[in-house]
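User: I'm putting together a teaching handout on how multi-component assemblies are represented. Below are the sequence lines for each component of a complex, exactly as they appear in our records. Could you produce the 3D structure of the whole assembly as structure tokens, so the students can see both representations side by side? Please keep the chain order the same as the input.
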Amino acid sequence: MPRDEIEPSAVSAGRRAGRAAVGGKIATANRLRDGVVVYLDAAGGWTTEVAQARIAHSSEDEQALKAALDSAVRANLIVDAAVIDTRAAESTPARLREQIRAVGPTVRPDLARRKPL
Amino acid sequence: MYIYDKFDQTIVRERVAAFRDQVARRLAGELDEDHFRPLRLMNGLYLQLHAYMLRVAIPYGTLSSAQLRRLAYIARKYDRGYGHFTTRQNIQYNWIKLEEAPDILSDLADVQMHGIQTSGNCIRNVTADHFSGVAGDEIDDPRVTSEILRQWSTFHPEFSFLPRKFKIAVTGAAHDRAAIKFHDIGIQVVRGPDGEVGYAIYAGGGMGRTPVVAPLIRGYLPKAELLSYVEAILRVYNRYGRRDNIYKARIKILVREIGAAEFTRQVEEEWKLIRTTGVNLPAAEEARIRRFFAPPPYDTIAEPVASLTQAKAASPAFARWIETNVHTHKVPGYAIVTISLKPPGGIPGDASAEQMEAIADLADRYSFAEIRVSHIQNLILPNVKQADLFAIWQALGKIGFADANAGLIGDIIACPGLDYCALANARSIPISQAISERFADPARSAEIGPLQIKISGCINACGHHHAGHIGILGVDRAGEELYQITLGGAADQTAEIGALIGPGFKSADAVDAIERIVDTYLKLRQPGEEFLVAYRRLGQAPFKEAAYGRA
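Assistant: Of course. Below is the structure of the complete assembly, with chains in the same order as your input.
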């Protein structure tokens, strides 16, 4: 089944994207000083907006993400660093866990960091 | 309630200062995360999905109104205006900043609170019956025992690096409201052969991926020998508990592997060596601690209380709330109130700063300034006059906590699940919300009667699903949240582990399955027969068939 035919996951519907829906990779972590969820952006900085995350589509790009995470961990800027899967061609995380990290608790839409993905 | 002495206050203050220094060194890059993580966990500071989470200890679930007000202040000043009361009778804040954590701990220390031993492989916050000291069926107030254990276990050097975490629960009555048989050590106050007060000791219970109902290892322990006996249990566990495999490190695995009889023999042998070496509490010290739990100055009140009778007659909704949320007090004219933190569609255990403050005010006005947290994630006003119940109910209505559902189907335990927790595999709260909404009609819920639903979002079972009459476990199957249903669990003196009925349900189907199980119960029950009793009589088959739509 082509990737774009896979039913999109919706945080509010209690579904996760299937594993087959993996697109690219993005780098994420929690900021050390306040624990806020951050993503590596295209300029090499850290953004709280998943839509601005830099997407890796090749293993070389993915290595660059990992290097950036390692360097930021060593610089004591971030903790719990991880490279995660995204849905095809977007920065929306593939797994529900990561979608919830990007948006906030599904049960408190009033506290959402951004609109549901 | 217990008030810190200079020693307690000093060690908590010193801990705040030490942690402030550690946080500063971490932020300055002098400590890396591998070195810092255990230090923050020793103060209850976890990293969750969205931020740091601070778990604050509420010893045996007892709070003063001043402490609850401070918890509200912290929710408002450092968090997002709310907190979550947990199945360990603690409170958790979900949106904590590391850089502010030392100030929070300092604010907590002002009211004799902290996050010490709410994480890590040590003896955790001791839990107890939330009706301690006021229940009519109580032999002795378990808070006295719990406070002794708190002081003994705080910073205990020998037990600071156990194979795994260690949880103790105490009940003062035969009716177990503290789930003691699901603890590493469960302590029940009993009367000895000559009517004197002592303890029955259970050991090796627990939930998690290997649920075990604790066996009784000593039918009677003299009260004065509590600490030496508990120490003997801890010593055997500390020596032989497995450290090679985190999933086999709890005491329940040791007790199961060598057998309860052999475990007991080893404990008794160890106990012989240490029972006279001085760890047992001197009677004078026990008496000193007991004085803090002396009954408040109750008035003499004749029952029945006329104003209560009249108010019940005038308001069926109030009468229903009295039926479910108000419990018999040991003193005539008084009552125990369960404040349900479970409005239909709400988040079990969550309370806003405003709600906490309103409850603190009610405690000041009506309940000798004391509040309890139950492991069922509700709050309790333990000492209210029956004549004040109507005013309390009305005040609770204003903050959305007047639901008449304590002990009923809507009184659901749910862990934070994947909405917050870094360990979770599935969400717990949305399933809980869907169930409580489905059964929101108070008449229907009263008709169903006592029914405990408990929901966990992973196998660690913080939501106590194994002990639910209906238990729900969220799992991740190939990227989809599925919910497995267990039936027949019980957390009380008839403790039992629920049995899985079969494959999991999708979230949209789980609530329908629960409803079919409940409808089957209503169809098959005998007059007055509660769900759990009916289930034990009928077995799993009819409920399983109904759940999968084959009935």
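A couple of points students might notice: The interface with chain A takes residues 26-27, 29, 32-33, 47-52, 80, 94, 96-99, 347, 418-420, 422, 424, 427, 429-430, 433, 476, 478-481, 506-508 of chain B (CB under 8 Å). The radius of gyration of chain B is 23 Å.
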